[in-house]
Amino acid sequence: EDIRFYSDFISVRIQDRKDIKDGGRFFYIMVEDALKFKDQIAYLWAEALKEPEEKSGLMLYSENEEKEITDYITEHFGAFENVLHEIASPDVHLDIALIPASEGRNYITLCTIGAGACPMYIDEETRINYGLPDRAEYVVYLPADWKIDNESLKDERNYWPFRLLKDTARLPIWTVSWLGYGHTISPAEGELLTEDMPYDSVLLTYPVPELDTMQYADLSSGKSVCFYLIHPLTPDELDYKKENGTSELLGQIYPEN
User: Fold this and answer.
1) Does residue 50 surpass a pLDDT of 70?
2) pTM of the predicted model as reported, rounded to 2 decimal places
C-alpha cells in the first residue's frame, strides 16, 4: 500500500486484507543511509511482498533466498548433504537440514529451512521498541549417535525432535502470534513432549555454542531471518526459569560458558 522513509528506518504497509489480524501489516527495515538507497530498497520490498499472494497461500522462499539461507546454515552450523523434505505443506514448506557431527561438534544439528518465508505476527509497537525479528528458522541439537536414517525415523522415539521442530516453527502461524528469545512452550498441563523422556516444555534461546547472540541471515531481498535453538526442559528446569529467568537457567546448564 505504501512505503515510508524515516531517518533511521523504513516502514512498509501491506494493503488491508480480511485474513490478516487488524486488517493490515507493517514491516520495518533498519539500514544505514536509508534515504541513499531508497529506490533499491523500495523495489526489493515491493517484489518480496508480492510472493505470498502469488503462491496461493503457500509461502515459500524464492530460489535465491533459499540458496542464501542454505549458505548461511552451512557457514554457521556445518556442511550437509541430507535434507528431510516435507511431503505435504499446508502453509510454509518446512524442510530439515541434517548436519552430521564433526570434529569440534560432537552433536548432530537439525535446522529448518522454510519457516522464515512466513513473517510472524508481532504488533507494531513491540516490533520497533525491541528491535525484534519477524522471521525465524529453528535449530535442535541431538547426540552424535542419534538415529536419523529413514527407517529409524519411523519410530517416534527417534522422530520426536523432528516433530518438535515442525510444530514449533508453525506455532506462530497457527496462533497468529510470534516467538522469540526466552519464550517457553508447553503442551497440555501434565503432558510430556514424548514418552520415555522427562521433558514437558521447550525454551527458545540463541543456538549456543554456534551463535550466542541474536544474528541474522540478511537476504538480498531485504528480509532478515534469525535462528533460535529449541531447548527441551524438564518440569524442574521450567520452574527454575520462571523464578530466575532465562540467563540464570542457561548459566546452570552451561556453567563453562
Assistant:
1) no
2) 0.77
